[in-house]
Design goal:
alpha/beta, homodimer, Isopropylmalate Dehydrogenase, globular
């Protein structure tokens, strides 16, 4: 998995995860190999179902393989229970292909909690990483801000937040090409003294580190895009992320209620809605190539349950970038440095 | 301040707080006494400035008084510094009128942190309340949900959250007339086991209490309005509140950028924007009568810095309801009960 070793990488794709599995997954795999020479795909899941779906397409059969897995973890299953009860799931099987070297990266649009837990369980952690983290993109007034952590770790220590900032910075730098990414710490006021105990202590560490730390950011700053990264514990990050996703749904409901109030309103909404959709297309989670789980000893990318074929392609491309950048080697080295620094602080 | 004692109550109004002070404050006071017989107003601040503003109106001069205060706490001052350095501020002076019994309630559209700190400092806490809490209304798909705490307490213990739930329930019941208000606990999953240590422990307490606790709610549920109250620590609540307020501002920016892309876009935005404004009028913070600081030994209501005269009227009416309901006596009694319960749990 080191930088530039292979011409063609192999991605194991959980064909049974996601709300539209395996339709989106198979279509995404086809699109990927058609347009991207450097990626082969191994579809992991029930062979008969996947091959039935594959029959709809013509494609280079040397570049898409099926690896059978009989169990399917459902979207609403308890992650830890599901992994324990279904060791033969497409999720766990797909991750094992990374462990054995049969694949270079794993992507899934399945049960987020289960992908996180199974990735950690199967791949293990990068040396010296205390807690892996999952980041999510927020569309902002000025582009994208990534928030780490959005749910992998609900109870955090200051060192965890510092490590999230390191891993997020490596990601922003080597995947998005952002030089010296700006790091903000999510809190309740700009001043250093503002925040809960965790945040105030994490501020101390971040301030003294070699990261490009610009201080606290508030809830109102997330959408302003003043920093490339926002660091917080996974409890806060998860709540903000889910809240943000729900705002669009509320807007839709409000539009519908308004339209239902009469013919004139219906006309007005008809005109306004198209405009709103145009305006809000940056908020379309389909566009995104999933969110990375950083800190595990392998590449694991988690997509939205409603991932379209295009989203699957974007996840595959994202995984390819992570593999070719040798991102985990860089994380390992930076985490080693930051732990030495933190031990001295 | 007990229930139904007086025909007319007196509200001390910080005439120098808020972005439009004293214009909004004076106009709000005039509107209040014109339309609401049971409320007299004492405007607190610089006498000359206030009386100049009052001259613009004709009103019953027996019902609006001025109480001089020479200092003004600015919106961006550090709360604790400001209170210490300006003991003669309109804020502290107005609160003292409640302490001495010259007023029954205090309202201010000034520096939120300073109003909180000065209220706690001047009025003290209701017996057995460990931490006062500030709640905020969130417009939802089905009406209003109140979130406690939104910033008074960043580091919380499970008992604090339980007390917030008790005070919030009393408020929802006696001010909004909601029988047996539904209480949700903000977390990262519905199951009892989901959440950080604080949330999981608070769940235990809430579950066994006599409150109408319906379990965990997630970030995505806030806007759904599935519960009347949502309980969380003030760190999380503050971040979500400020994030929510910023979403409208982002929408405006996006609309503007879109319109700037050409004449057709400009026309489309022109049509869409009016509709959107109609649809989002529930999100208009001007409508709200401020947010209550519960648990202090008096009535203190904090308004948005941009409060309009109408918002000031609504704050006065809200304060009147709190006084006439004898809300603090009820809170005192319920908190005593819940502490006995928690001690046994």
């Amino acid at each position: 998995m080191s930088k530039g070793v292979k011409d063609t990488i192999t991605i194991s794709l959980d064909a049974m995860g996601g709300d539209n599995a395996p339709v989106s997954e198979v279509a995404g795999a086809i699109e990927t190999v058609r347009h991207h020479e450097g990626i082969n795909i191994t579809l992991v899941g029930k062979t008969d179902i996947i091959s039935n779906e594959l029959k709809k397409f013509s494609y280079d059969t040397t570049r898409i393989k099926i690896h059978n897995a009989d169990d399917v973890i459902e979207m609403d299953e308890s992650p830890t229970d599901a992994i324990r009860k279904k060791p033969g799931s497409s999720l766990v099987t797909g991750l094992k292909l990374c462990k054995t070297g049969e694949a270079d990266a794993f992507i899934s649009a399945g049960n987020t909690g289960a992908v996180m837990a199974a990735s950690l369980f199967t791949l293990g952690r990068i040396a010296n990483v205390n807690r892996p983290t999952i980041g999510s993109r927020f569309p902002t007034e000025r582009g994208i801000t990534m928030v780490f952590d959005v749910g992998a770790n609900v109870d955090c220590k200051p060192l965890n937040l510092l490590q999230f900032a390191v891993m997020g910075s490596v990601y922003a730098n080597h995947i998005y090409g952002i030089e010296n990414p700006k790091v903000g710490l999510l809190s309740v006021g700009e001043e250093k003294s503002k925040g809960d105990t965790l945040t105030v202590e994490a501020y101390e560490l971040l301030e003294k580190s070699n990261l490009n730390f610009i201080g606290n950011v508030e809830g109102r700053d997330i959408m302003k895009g003043t920093t490339d990264l926002i660091i917080c514990d996974g409890f806060t990050g998860n709540i903000v992320l889910k809240f943000a996703e729900s705002v669009l749904s509320l807007l839709k409901t409000k539009f519908k209620d308004y339209a239902d109030k009469g013919f004139v309103n219906k006309l007005k909404v008809g005109m306004a809605y198209g405009t709103l959709k145009d305006i809000l297309k940056d908020f379309d989670y389909q566009e995104y190539g999933g969110v990375p789980l950083l800190g595990v000893n392998g590449i694991s990318i988690i997509g939205h349950g409603r991932s379209s074929p295009r989203a699957i392609v974007n996840m595959a491309l994202n995984a390819e970038r992570m593999v070719r950048a040798g991102i985990n080697d860089i994380i390992a080295s930076k985490i080693k440095d930051i732990n030495l620094f933190a031990a001295k602080t």
